[in-house]
Amino acid sequence: MDTMTSTKILGGFCGAFLIFLLGKWAAEEIYQTGSGHGGEEQAYVIDTGEEETSGEAEEAVPFAELLAAADPGKGERVWGKCRACHKVEDGANGTGPHLFGVVGRDVGSVAGFGYSGALVAVADVWTPENLQAFLENPRDFAPGTKMSFSGLKDAEDRANLIAWLDSLDG
């Protein structure tokens, strides 16, 4: 295989790629993805009998009520998401600090665990409210935290987990 043949093969691939890109550009221009038909409004809207909602969620139940009605048994099942990094035995740290007696404990107070420092800056004590906010989205509650967990989105799951953790130390 000589230089001229390899140059022709490379030129063929480059030409095919160029045609592919031009075709993609032409298709985007023709179909204008995401913008509708030139920004015009829809001429006829079918009434389904439902009013449009503004996207607001229903009135949220206060966390104190959720915590009062929390089921520690369900919280133990939610614990499965935390088990990979945390332990509930007193003094047994995993990737994260142990969570025995965490409710009411000072933030960043587990001996022998290297905290990131971001937690101490946002809270003093792990109250149920602080735990709830942290478990909802750890990175929003304490920017710079080492915890990579994305959070528990369901408020009932958070309340059940906090009730279970609170029941561990009597």
UniProtKB/TrEMBL annotation:
Species whose genome carries this gene: Marinovum algicola
UniProt GO MF annotations: electron transfer activity; heme binding; metal ion binding
Key words of the record: Electron transport, Heme, Iron, Metal-binding, Transport
Domain of life, source organism: Bacteria
Boundaries of every Cytochrome c domain copy: 70-169
Listed PANTHER family: CYTOCHROME C (PTHR11961)
SUPFAM superfamilies found in the cross-reference section: Cytochrome c
Protein name, UniProt field: Cytochrome c
